[in-house]
Amino acid sequence: MTSGTLHLHGITKSYGSRRVLDDVTFDVAPGRLTGFVGGNGAGKTTTMRIVLGLLSSDSGSVTLDDAPVTGADRRTFGYMPEERGLYPKMKVLEQIVYLARLHGIGKADAVDRATGILTELGLGERLGDTIESLSLGNQQRAQIAAALVHDPKVMILDEPFSGLDPLAVDVVASTLQATAARGTAILFSSHQLDVVERLCDDLVILAGGTIRAAGSRDGLRAEHAGNRYELVSAGDAGWLRTEPGVTVVDFEGGYALFDADDADTAQRVLRAAVDRGDVASFAPKHPSLAQIFKEVIQ
After folding, report:
1. The pTM is what?
2. Domains and CATH numbers, the chain
3. What digits encode the pLDDT tens for the residues 29-47?
């Protein structure tokens, strides 16, 4: 199912005199994974609940393909709350089939879909087990299956990787990437910045209820790269320490990481390196998501 673009525009929310969201505006595009990051209390869960109609905003709008999001639209969304909500006494397959049926899916189709998704998530051998008998990580996988089983056009996932071991993270990430590839718009929050960086296509950073940065992952990394460069050459890179306009951050043998005063300085360094011998690589050094996050929330 191909979804439209989910657009949040000018969302504000206050509790008494405390403003928890202030002019929050960003898009969640179909076929893309949008990472939503921020510290505790930044406003991520409040934003997600407003998108889902669980909370009302004081002002602003939430639209899907430029039309206001309706209750009927929201019933097609997949949602994974931070507080997990499966029935502990129900069997895994029975639970997911039940939720599929609530979305109007026929029984046979519901069983097929639930079995397929649970198997993809690594729970194929646990279909007859109760939810409460699963490890917390496997309960997490079942909760993701619950959000996926009705083929949602928009998915809102609050901390989907919380409590998962590295292998389970890979399984869930693969499933979400495949879901996005089918055209679903996916917004997910996470405190695990390394996972977000590896998985997301787009990124929204929220702090103190305001958007501090938003855009494509690669675009934000390029935007915040500054004038830091990485040089790998055949010779000793120690000569860089005496170059005007250059601040060496790190070097070892032929490797050097340095800041240049401007692009002209960087090009002068490259020419000098070429004159001194073979240059294996020379490129701007893009920051990690963790570095961008620290920079924009200060």
Report:
1. 0.84
2. 6-222 (3.40.50.300), 224-286 (3.30.70)
3. 999 999 999 988 899 999 9
